[in-house]
Amino acid sequence: PRELPGLLVIFVSAILFFLCSRRKAALANILCAIGILFIGFYSPTFSIMLIWLFMFSVGQHLFIPLNQSIGMELSTEGKTGERLGQFSAVANVAMIIGSFAVFIGFRFLNLNFKISYVVAFLGFLTVATFIFLMKKNEPVSARMKFQLRREYKLFYWLNILYGTRKQLFLTFAPWVLVTVFKQKTEVLATLLAVGGVIGIFFKPMLGKAIDKLGERFILSAEAVMLVFVCIGYGFAREIFTETAALFIVFIC
Question: Is the Cα torsion angle 37, 134, 204, 89 positive or negative in sign?
Answer without folding.
Answer: negative
